[in-house]
C-alpha cells in the first residue's frame, strides 16, 4: 500500500546509507554541492532535500522552498554540462544531460511533497479530498479512494474503486487488485486473474509487480510452473528499477551460481545496492564481506555497518560488535565496550523471548 511518509523515509535512508557506505561526510558533501552557484542547476533536488531535512546542514525549509521554487520556475533554462571541482582542483562530477533530466524529474516530485505535505500525508485518511475527482473518472483519485477503503478493511468497496482505476490504466491499482485476487481480499480467489493483473502492471513498469512476477515463477504460484531462471529475469528488471528486495535476490542468484553463472563482482554490485536501500540481510553480508575478503578487506567499514545494525537491535550485529571490541577488529580493543554490548545482546534475547 502506498505511503508517502514511508517513501520520504526511504529517500532519507537511501541518502544516509549511501553517504555511510562511501565514507562521505554529509557536511562535506553539502559544502561541495553548494560551493558554486551554478551547481544548483545540477543538484538542486539534492540541495533542497538536504536543507529540508537537515542532512549535512541545519534544517532550513525556507531555503529549501526557495531552491525548489526557483528551479521549477526557471525550468532549468541555464546551460548545464558544468564540471565541478573540489578544493584540489580535481574533477569530481560531470553534470551531463542525464543528470539534468533526472534532476528535473526529481525536483518536481520533491517540490510537490514540500508544498502539499500536509494534504498528501493525510490523503489516505481523507475520503472527501479525492471522492469528487474519483467520481469524475480520475484514475489516480480512484486508486487513493481504493486505498482508503483497503486500509479500513472494506475490501468490497476497495475492489470497486481499484477496478475503476485499473480500467483507467493505473498500474498501481492493477498491482493491488492482483494482490486482492491472489489473497482473496474482497473477491473470490483467482490466481489466473491475479497473474494477468501483475503482468499488465509490470508491462507498465511498476517495480512491485515485476518483483511479484518473479515470486510467482520462483515458487510456481498464480498458475505458473516453477521456473527459477524466469524468476531471475523479473527480479532483475525490478532490481534495475530500484526495488530493494529484488536487488538482494538478484545478488543471491549471483552468489549461489546455481541458475545463472556465479559472479562475485555482480553479487557485490547488487548486494551493495540492496544494503544502501535498507535491506538488513544485505547490510550484514556486506559487513561480513569487508571482514573476510582478501582484496577488498575493510575491517573499519565492516565495524561501522555492524555498529549501525547493532544500534537497531539486530542480534547478529550485536554479536559481531562484541567480537570487534574484544579482538580489535576495525576498532580499538575495548573490553568494557565489549562487555556492555554483551549485556545488550542478552537483554535483547530476554526481551524477544518474553514477547
Instruction: Give the C-alpha Rg.
Output: 23 Å
Percentage beta strand: under 5%
User: Distance between the terminal alpha carbons, to the nearest Å?
Assistant: 27 Å
Q: On the 0-100 scale, what is the average pLDDT?
A: 84
What does the overall shape look like?
A: globular
Q: What structural class do you assign from the helix and strand content?
A: mainly alpha
Query: Strand count, sense and closure of the main sheet?
Result: 2 strands, antiparallel
Annotation, overall tally of beta strands: 2
Q: Helix fraction?
A: over 70%
Order of helices and strands: HHHHEEHHHHHHHHHHHHHH
Number of helices: 18
Poorly predicted residue ranges:
76-94
> Going across the major beta sheet, what is the strand order?
1-2
InterPro entries: ISR_Activator (IPR052748), Sel1-like (IPR006597), TPR-like_helical_dom_sf (IPR011990)
Pfam families: Sel1 (PF08238)
Protein name: Skt5p
Amino acid at each position: 500500500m502506498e505511503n508517502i511518509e514511508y517513501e520520504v523515509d526511504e529517500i532519507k535512508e537511501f541518502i544516509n546509507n549511501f553517504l555511510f557506505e562511501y565514507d562521505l561526510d554529509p557536511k562535506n558533501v553539502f559544502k561541495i554541492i553548494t560551493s558554486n552557484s551554478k551547481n544548483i542547476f545540477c543538484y538542486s533536488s539534492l540541495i533542497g532535500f538536504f536543507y529540508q531535512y537537515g542532512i549535512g546542514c541545519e534544517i532550513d525549509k525556507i531555503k529549501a522552498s526557495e531552491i525548489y521554487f526557483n528551479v521549477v520556475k526557471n525550468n532549468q533554462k541555464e546551460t548545464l554540462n558544468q564540471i565541478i571541482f573540489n578544493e584540489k582542483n580535481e574533477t569530481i562530477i560531470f553534470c551531463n544531460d542525464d543528470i539534468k533530466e533526472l534532476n528535473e524529474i526529481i525536483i518536481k516530485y520533491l517540490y510537490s511533497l514540500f508544498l502539499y505535505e500536509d494534504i498528501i500525508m493525510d490523503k489516505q485518511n481523507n475520503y472527501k479530498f479525492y471522492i469528487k475527482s474519483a467520481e469524475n473518472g480520475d484514475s489516480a483519485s480512484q486508486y487513493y479512494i481504493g486505498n482508503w477503503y483497503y486500509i479500513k478493511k472494506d475490501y468490497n468497496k476497495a475492489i470497486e474503486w481499484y477496478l475503476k482505476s485499473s480500467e483507467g490504466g493505473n498500474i498501481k491499482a492493477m498491482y493491488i487488485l492482483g494482490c486482492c485476487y491472489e489473497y482473496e481480499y474482497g473477491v473470490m480467489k483467482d490466481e489466473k486473474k491475479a497473474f494477468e493483473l501483475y503482468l499488465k502492471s509490470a508491462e507498465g513498469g511498476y517495480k512491485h509487480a515485476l518483483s511479484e512476477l518473479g515470486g510467482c515463477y520462483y515458487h510456481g504460484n498464480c498458475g505458473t510452473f516453477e521456473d527459477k531462471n524466469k524468476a531471475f529475469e523479473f527480479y532483475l528488471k525490478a532490481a534495475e528499477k530500484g526495488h530493494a528486495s529484488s536487488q538482494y535476490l538478484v545478488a543471491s542468484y549471483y552468489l549461489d551460481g546455481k541458475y545463472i553463472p556465479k559472479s562475485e563482482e555482480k553479487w557485490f554490485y547488487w548486494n551493495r545496492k540492496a544494503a544502501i536501500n535498507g535491506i538488513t540481510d544485505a547490510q550484514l553480508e556486506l559487513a561480513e564481506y569487508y571482514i573476510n575478503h582478501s582484496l577488498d578487506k575493510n575491517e573499519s567499514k565492516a565495524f561501522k555497518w555492524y555498529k549501525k545494525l547493532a544500534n537497531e537491535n539486530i542480534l547478529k550485529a550485536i554479536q559481531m560488535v562484541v567480537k570487534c571490541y574484544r579482538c580489535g577488529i576495525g576498532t580499538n580493543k575495548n573490553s568494557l565496550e565489549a562487555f556492555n554490548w554483551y549485556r545488550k545482546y542478552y537483554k535483547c534475547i530476554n526481551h524477544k523471548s518474553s514477547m
